[in-house]
Records
---
Amino acid sequence: MQDTGILFILFRLVDAIVQLFMVVLIVYVVISWLYAFDIVGRGNQFIRSTWEFCRRITDPVLRPLRRLIPPIAGVDLSVLVLILGIQLLLLPLWWWLYGVLVGAR
């Protein structure tokens, strides 16, 4: 029973990190749209530093996807594919964890 509690805590920690990464992805996309539609100028230091932080975090993961998925009408779909992929990977893991926790009782 003790092992399942540690497993649950570990999964929650990994899930929290993945959710934070997805928030960074969404912030990255929103800022890139703000730049693309000239809503925010590139001279805004706060937005530029936030975008640079998000770019440095997400680009190592997005770069291989961008090679496989070309932009469609100038829209980068690699972020959408990555978010969907993460969700499709996490869902079976949570089902498995639920089965382990219920089976341990």
Note: The helical segments are 2-36, 45-68, 78-103.
---
Amino acid sequence: MVVPFAFRWFFTEVLTGLEGPLREAGYDVLLYNVGDPARRERFFATMPLRRRVDAVIAVAPSFGPAEREALH
């Protein structure tokens, strides 16, 4: 899951709602908080998602064209 602000009410509620059912279905859940520019830059520079993943859930961030392509 990629979120801009992990500890704001809305994002906490979304994470809580998704995490339980995903774990029950046998998925591991990784959280990437990309709210500040340094974290966002580090995330896209290292692209930890290049490892084997089943899906990316991006909750409300706005990605530029290069960032969308990297996630794809």
Note: DSSP finds three helices and two strands in the chain.
---
Amino acid sequence: MMMKALVIGGTGPSGPYVVRGLVSRGYKVTILHRGAHEIPLPDEVDHIHGDAHFQAPGDIVEALKGQTFDVVIATYGRLRRIAEAMKGRTQRFIAIGGTPAYKGWRKPALAPEGLPTPVREDTTTLHDNPDLDLYGYLIVMTERTIMENHRAGHYQATIFRYPQIYGPWQPGPRDWSIVRRILDGRKRFILPDGGLTIETWCYGENAAHAVLLAVDQPDRSVGQIYHVGDESPMSLRRRVHVISRIMGHEWELVEIPRALAPPTFPYLTHGSHHRILDLTKIKTELGYRDVVPAEEGVEKTVRWLQENRPAPRGQEEMQLKDPFDYAAEDRFIEAFQECIRRMALVPWTPWEPGLSRYAVLPDVPRASP
């Protein structure tokens, strides 16, 4: 008898790869999504159109019209309501959550000493104080509900904490902030804090591969929480260089402290602290390895964005909150360069003995002491 799978969402950056992977494994696949946009999927996939942000679990059950499934993969929607609705309606429940569960992930001030590097699955979460970060707290409460249902025997659960997912069909494509500036012919690009911030992202196909590893290995994955991510996280500086090379563009990279450069906030959203996920658990327990190397994933993303350009001031750009105000960016650059010129005139006498062993002075004109 054919196994049945339900994918809630399924049209974002990882969903289509999950759906195709399930079909290739012999599942009869149904996707529940809003129907706001259709993407190429195998003809045998059934579609149920409905908003996964249902008001109550019963609304989800009603939309499914009494169907039950061998596995449910929830990639979108009000996850806690979905988790409640799936009690007794599936044997396996695989939930896609997020890294904002960690204290300090979204709001660096909550972890003033910085996040651990890398962040493990047992790193401190926002489990005890909703006033610190309500969004992250609700993610943790949802995870708790899912695992309580798992322990109660309603289904066998696995949770994935997704970082930033990139690739085709990404709702808020952060790479567009770089790609559009190149397409618009910008000759200068502001790099906040030198672009040295390193962050784990995950190409959509890699994320789907991780989820399908859990489908294939229920005995190992049930009751577990896993990170996903590209094996080689990039700094922002490297990402800009890779995209520039792919698009054959040369420009001046202007390094400005993030706090002094508001135009950079859309592409360095939560500060310049590193956000690197530890992938040891999923690699050792499920055998995860990237199916698409990170630089190849960036190239595929860039090509897709060039062929499917977000509309100016459209939904994607509104989600990015990037005004693409180049005149303002130039004013920030000019003001900062003037600041540098003035700082270079501040009198300063270096400690000369052995200086070359410890430091290299910047080659800028200085006033006499």
Note: The chain has a mean pLDDT of 91.
---
Amino acid sequence: GSVARPWLTVIVPTLNEAPGISAFLRQPALLESDSIEVIVVDGESSDGTEYLASVHAHRVVSASRGRARQMNTGASFARGSWLLFL
């Protein structure tokens, strides 16, 4: 069968967010809905953020540091009809 396209993609640019990223991504509203996908775009973190995010996010991608660059990278991977940048 085909996988339904999410209506919302949540894009989370990160840089050294290890202390809080797991708790944030474990929110049931983010991960238990087939209509929401979560993409974390890590900007060269040095504290393990990318690994921690990979446990919970639907997709984790890397980008050079810079909020706009990270947001644009996340948007390029988004499948949702709507984008929410956090």
Note: The radius of gyration is 12 Å.
